[in-house]
Design goal:
Length: 79
Amino acid sequence: MPKQSKSADKRIRLTLDLTPKQFAKLQGLEEETGATKAEIVRNALRLYTYIAERAFAGDSFRAVDKQGKSADVVLVELT
């Protein structure tokens, strides 16, 4: 009897339309990180989900550089 796969193992294929600039950014991330384009998109979705959940809960975000200087991160589409 064949082994049943877990629902987490099932994949759905997705086609994206990107501008040449967006695609170049994706390729650059692929080269810089060693991750595949699919891994980058999956990681971006996880990060976006976390940020959206926190933003909807009323949290704010700050970016801090190496010198300790911080700036508010404004999430226009999530407010």
